[in-house]
Amino acid sequence: MITPETKIRMGMVGGGPDAFIGQVHRCVAAMDGQIELVCGAFCSDPARSESFGHSLGLEPERCYPDFQTMIAREAALPPERRMLFVAIVTPNHMHFAIAECALKAGFHVLSEKPATVSLEQACALRDRVRASGLKYCLTHNYTGYPMVRQARDLVASGELGAIRKIVVEYPQGWLASMVEQTGQKQAGWRTDPTRAGSSNCMGDIGTHAENLAEHISGLRLKELAADLSRFGEGRTLDDDGNVLLRFEGGAKGVLHASQISTGEENDLNIRLYGEKGGLQWKQQEPNTLIVHRLGQPSQIYRSGQDYLSPAASSMCRLPAGHTEGYLGAFANIYRSFAADLRRVLSGDAGSESSADYPGIEDGVRGLAFIEACVKSSQSNAAWTPLQG
Length: 388
Prior knowledge:
By secondary structure, the protein is an alpha/beta fold.
């Protein structure tokens, strides 16, 4: 049992000194003062892992050489001291083993996406999560933006009518040259099939686009036709892809994801059209949601305003006119997960309303999307149903 004053204790696997996303997780986890990092296994090199943990100010005996040791030793600690959940921020190929080990030991799990490297693993992990009764969060952080929640609520309210068309794009340009050959760590593992899985571009950023489309529309992707490309000379995994989408209920869509779109930064954006209206949102201009209604002038919704839905307002961290950025949106996912853990750990069997964060089902959907894209592309863009 925990009290309202008790911080939710987190252990971290991965996210060492050369990692980008580990520092992001540590920053956003601490943002609301609800979560405390108490232990970690940060690198594959035991000495570096322990040294890095010391640099973060952790107790020396809780800077572990590997995740197996961390989980075993934390489980042996008194309940009031041990970690309460594990944050997995490693390359993809490690996700399943760490999550499985944590669940077996009775720890809740928060993981970077994709959930695993294969649909088979993702389905197996879903079974383990369900059997354990423990909580699992997948950090599709873009769903934490206020205007994404506003878009979802507008669609759910029926204001736009039945959805007909979804166009979602995620162009980047950081792999336009062969940066993985320069020793760039992030490019190195993402373009390596032994660590990334069967896809680079679609696995890394295409899944964000797929998740955003399903999250806002409330529709499940049924089948797709994908054309994946490898423009980088010698690359074995995709760095660009174009996908036609068919959703349950009859909506159609187009998804484009690319890491070789020279000059692009991180331009995740979505346009959604219904029989009575439409909307558009861009991650690089996150405070603005443009809404179209049939026969009326377009409207501009802005974060921080009183007219937003309760869900969107709850995600706003700043007064109107201040940018609701990447870290704040990411922190909203952590905050929702922490609130749900606090409810469970305090013995409150009441409302599940705090559990509004991506979970294991999103993980399975993401791997189903990846594998359908790869299979379709290998069959000359044949229409391929999503499994799982």
